[in-house]
Amino acid sequence: MNKFKLICLSMALLVAAPACTDLEEEPFDVLLSQNYYQDKNSIIAAVTRPYEHGHWNGWDGDRWLISELTADQFVWPQKGRHGQDGGDWVRLHRHEWNNLDSHINGGWEGPYQGIGQCNLIINDLTNLNYATMGLTEADKAQHIGELRVLRAWFYTFLIDYFRSVPIVTQPNERKGQSTPQEVFAFMEQELKEALPGLPKNGRPGRWDQGGAAAVLVRIYLNAEKWIGTPKYTEAGQYAQDIIDGKYGTYSIDTDYRGPFRSGIKNYHSPENIFEFPHAKNIYEFGWMYNAMMHYQARYSLDNDWGGWNGITLTPSRDMEGNIYPYKLGKPFEKYSKDDKRKQPFRTTSSNGDYEGFFLIGQQYEFNKTRGYGFDSTKVVNGTEEYNGKPLRYVDQVGRFSEGAAGLAKGSHVETGEENSGVRLLKFPWLPMSQNLFQFNSAPEIRLAEMYYALAEVKFRAGDKASAARLLDAVRKRNFPEDKWEEHSYQSNLSRLTEDEFVDELGREFLGERHRRTDLVRWDKFDDAWWDKAVDTEDRSVFPIPLRQINTNPLLKPNGFE
Fold it and tell me: Is the pTM of this model over 0.70?
């Protein structure tokens, strides 16, 4: 956990972290770099500071919201008097945003703040004499290299969301936007040049060769959409090299829970190529918990947090209990009943063992006497529509508590109630009483993603058999041995259609900020799903926020208003 301490220490580094659209900030409290960098620890603290911002950027707030709530698997339904929030979640869900949307503005500001931090520290480190601080030129090259990778990773958000954006590499630099092709070429060059100087299998939470190569896979896989030039061959080659161990040693975790419980009780999943570590009271996985969990979840999950009762899975069933006919969405229903992940979440020992990824059905209090599981004699009640009544999460959205009058309102983002929607517990928030709460890492890039990327390359090339083999290499862990044959793609090759491939991407990477990008890449982002009609115009690129255009006169609208 020393890295966490360094991250927190580094937050004391008082420097401007400018965004490219407002680079002439007035610093009120600045510690000059020549006074800050005094020893090895101060250098490491500076290097790790942008990583803390990286976690916030990817797993806390706007970037997660516009990557998942604009897609088909998650929604923030209004639940009675809660969650209306000025219509924010309706606009994201139904693709009705515009260039004034605050969350889309956050999709611009968050990455550029991280880029600003990287630029500033790269500039500082370039001018430092490492030898006087007990470090080598190789250390210097590695530190600058990993910051270049981190900066390129921040740019993946920008090119994905907006396409034409400024390339900013110096502190206090204001520029107009470059073409998507120029941005892509910059990212590619940064990653390729930095990769050889990085270690293999570096410390958790720091970019290494495997991580840099995996970001290359991501940009190549999406190149056709981003720049109009397919680069699936390049994506496949790097993915294969990662799988073969060229850039480090990784393996698919045999436990379906493994990649998501990394960090708990000092476990590190061999599948996680890059993860953001956490620790209670140091740096916590808090936003995701708050955004997804009901106010009463603290009684079921054993902690003292309140939760916002916000984000849920989009519903699989209509008001009468019938499965919706849409091809997309219905995430909970898309998991087979034989899939271990579909089990209702429950802890199975006081050592952090658990099963299942979802909270659904009647909620019970945590069994404090036993130290794990639930106490079936103690029902958790609701606080709003079901105040004093049992709280049961349902895979539906509707005003059932209002009877016929509520049913007449239909199933929409605006017509939820406090028990609407299945809750995701893929990221295991474990009991606080066992000192396990908030210690799980955020798995930013997993080896499974490389298998699926290579499978997609094979599938697009017409090699369905190889695609099935690669997908099955990951999927087998999700099913009991006696049920595997009927679920194997290799044994049921005709089942692996394009629609099934998209569904499988949704199952494997649920909640990992992949879904919008995947749907765009597969030309399905404008399709219909629950409470969202087919888009009448291309919505696959966000408009450059008006706030940014007004701030930087060199910026021009990108044509997606």
Answer: yes
